[in-house]
Amino acid sequence: WAGAVLRAIVRELTGRGVATIVLNVAQANTGAQRLYARHGFAVHCAYWEGVGRRREIEPQRPEGAAHSATTDY
Fold it and tell me: pTM for this structure?
């Protein structure tokens, strides 16, 4: 069912003229990552949620940080 739902969402968005779709998925959610990959999405960058502040040093990616996947249609 997940694939059918994702296809319907992509079809609706592209029908409305959306050219880029971005998804956020937890790193541990490998099933969702595989589903998105089968539908043309690819890892674009890592991210982590939470309140942040600007630091003078480059922040380290926390253990378990999620990925952001994107695809262009």
Answer: 0.62
Options 3.40.50.2300, 3.30.70.1350, 3.40.640.10, 3.40.630.30; CATH for 2-51+59-72 is 3.40.630.30
* Distance from chain centroid for Cα 11: 17
The string of pLDDT tens digits covering residues 5-56 is: 999 999 999 999 998 998 888 888 999 999 999 999 998 887 776 655 555 5
Strand order in the sheet with 42-47: 20-25, 66-72, 42-47
2-18: b or e for each residue (b if 16 or more CB lie within 10 Å)? eeeebeeebeeeeeeee
